[in-house]
Amino acid sequence: MRPVPLLFLAAGLLGACTSASRESAAESPQAPPAAARPPRRPPVAPPPDSAARATAATSDSVSAPAGPGRLVRLPVGPDIGPHPLECPGFNQSELPRAKDGQLRGTFYWGGRLLLTRLDDYEDALLLRDTPRDTTWLHLPVDVPAGFECSAPEEAQVQLVNLDRQGPPEVLFYFKNDAHGAGGGTTLRVLNVFSLAGEQPQLLLRTLQWQEVESWSGGTEKNGNAEPTLHQARTERRVRLRGRDIELGAFASEYGAGIGVDRKTLPGPLPGRYRYQGGRLYRVEASR
Asked: What pLDDT, in 10s, does the model give residues 34-79?
């Protein structure tokens, strides 16, 4: 056997080591790359109505949904509803008619409301369930507490959807005249009705203006000259502001101090009033 040269033996050992190293590398699985750190999640914003819920301090106050302010629920009182109304019924055959046989008056709300004049002495607002019904309900109107109600005259009707749902609410303006031998009082009054539900309701009643007349002197007994007429008028601004009814303060137009004390006039206080969710609220500035 011929001896193998040392140089060739060393080269062979080096090649074997290199081959084994490559095979070992091929058989060993590679370590997975380090996982990337997930991005930081942005803070979650609160739901839009959470701020409104946070400001609802009591069950009688909630945040106003439109504009700055809050709603304060009003207790039911003489001129603040809702007050269910007892409405007398009329058959269509009992209602006044024009010469052509048609019902006399002005129709509203697709024929379901009728402003007419009963017995030629009082204006009346009538309601029926559908435009084809022949049975009508008479919506009773009244003046603020402390005044005497007579037959409504010079009535006007305005339909406004105050709560933005269901049927429109009815703003009914009328004049109330109560006079005697020595003078009297004339009122302009607003009644606000809700037609939602099975029974109409009174929501709000307010005086718009009051005019007082009184006479002095001029009696036949003492032979004086013609009697002197004294007049005084007190008025408040009543207007719609968006979905709210805005009532101003009472102010003397003329004849201040003659039978009229604006500080004691009945009715809701000055401010903005909103009908929402079947209740009447007062809109007040946020604290």
From this structure: 444 444 434 433 333 333 333 333 334 444 454 567 999 999 999 9
Query: What phi, psi does 185 have (nearest 5°)?
Result: -135, 135
What letter would DSSP give residue 98? Answer: -
Neighbours of 165 (CB within 10 A): 9
First-last CA distance in the chain: 113
Q: How far apart are alpha carbons 114 and 138 in whole angstroms?
A: 10
The pLDDT tens digits for 196-245 are 988 999 999 999 998 988 877 666 555 556 778 888 888 999 999 999 99
Distance CA 154, CA 123 (A): 7
Among 192, 187, 160, smallest CA distance to 176 is for 187
Report how far apart, in Å, the C-alpha atoms of 174 and of each of 84, 104, 194, 206, 264 are. Answer: 20, 18, 17, 11, 22
User: From CA 226, how far away is CA 145, in angstroms rounded?
Assistant: 35
193 burial type by CB count under 10 A (0-12 exposed, 13-18 middle, 19+ buried): buried
Q: Are 217 and 224 in contact (CB under 8 A)?
A: yes
Residue keyed to tokens 């008025």: 235
HEC profile of 36-90: CCCCCCCCCCCCCCHHHHHCCCCCCEEECCCCCCEEEECCCCCCEEEEECCCCEE
User: Can you tell me the distance from the alpha carbon of 286 to that of 57, in angstroms, rounded to the nearest whole number?
Assistant: 12
| Structure token pair of residue 275 | 């009908």
Distance from chain centroid for Cα 191: 15
